[in-house]
From TrEMBL:
The lineage of its organism: Eukaryota, Viridiplantae, Streptophyta, Embryophyta, Tracheophyta. It is an enzyme of class 1 (oxidoreductase). The keyword Oxidoreductase applies. This is Dihydroorotate dehydrogenase (quinone), mitochondrial. It comes from the Eukaryota. SUPFAM superfamilies: FMN-linked oxidoreductases. It is found in: Mitochondrion inner membrane.
Amino acid sequence: MREGRLLAAIARRFAYGSSSCIHTAAETSGSAKEAVAAAFQKPPLPPKIRLTWGRVLTGTLLGAVIAGGAYVGTRDEATISAWTFEAAKYINPLFRLLDPENAHKVAIWASSHCLCPRETRPDPPVLEVSVWGRTFSNPVGLAAGFDKNAEAVEGLLGIGFGFMEVGSVTPVPQEGNPKPRVFRLPEQGAIINRYGFNSEGIVAVAKRLGAQHGKRRMAETVNSAITTNTEQRVLGGKAGPGILGVNLGKNKTSEDAAADYVQGVHTLSQYADYLVINVSSPNTPGLRKLQGRKQLKDLIKKVLAARDEMQWGEEGPPPLLVKIAPDLSKQDLADIAAVALSLRLDGLIIANTTVSRPDSVIGLVHADEMGGLSGKPLFTLSTEVLREMYQLTWGKIPLVGCGGISSGEEAYVKIRAGATLVQLYTTFAYEGPALIPRIKAELAACLERDGFKSAQEAIGADHR
């Protein structure tokens, strides 16, 4: 009897992994042979499970989450950050399957929901730059035009930009130009757009930036309460771990451009680490005429007065910059330099998109579309304008180099030509988040190769 029971238990455990899974008559049969036979009988079948795509998908996602959690649990933050940026390389090409404007909307949505990679690795110390009393962990920024309505500030700064610019923001909401208005020239890594300052307006943008500013202040309060090092240095600005610029535009139907920019200053400057007057978009009729010597001088005076009449704390008012076009004559550039020096402008962004069509894009599909051309074909032209403006201003005014940058080497060329900071847009639209750590690593390598201890040392090196 005992032998029968023992053999039955062993058989059950071997066959099904647990003696509790089955109950047979073997325990009371009194025969070892009968007990073994009973143990190997098939257990009753469970109720038939109906598999559906919903259940399969749920199971797959659950498995992915569990596997991802296990992976994350065995790796440090730097490793995870590197892995997510690497994964982004394979995801970003999917955006090219969409219409350019729809792809732009999806990218903003993903960034606003923090579905993009987050950089947790510190920037190389060699990339640090100080200007306008602010410290940038790196000089690589996102140009205006990508996040027009300040929908994704936290997510985009989290990718690893040293700074970013929202806008252009107009006082009153406007749709912009009719669609289609964005065109890819993939052979040259270029884009032509004629958006025409499509904007949700300053009220909507102020609401978003106000919420972001509140989160930043709350985080600072918590950090100051828990830290014991009162002298710790904090990188970043009003929006978080990065500097935030607000780019101001005018409404298409507005007859008083200065009033539009003043309204933007009054409403949005409290949330900005720096302000930009955009007078160089080719897609708003008459806007580029504001770059004339007299018009620009009158405009800047009014905007500066509006900014300075507001009450500011110890850090003072946000710096004021002007964004100019790359299609200006030498006389136009000389006039702008004279105005900037005489009014002690805080900086110039060089440059916006071009209405010209370099030989490299002639004959390509969409090359004849109206609008501003950006991307790789703009690099040489915008860098030449940057170099000339540095000479015209004697290196006394900080310059932001924008236009055609697609590598760390090209960012380095801009800095040597006179740029304190650089901005990206089109190449970021093509390559996605993976571009940012690559371009910073390449820039750091260029600086170290040529013996510069910091990016600050390399500014304007070609002129020395």
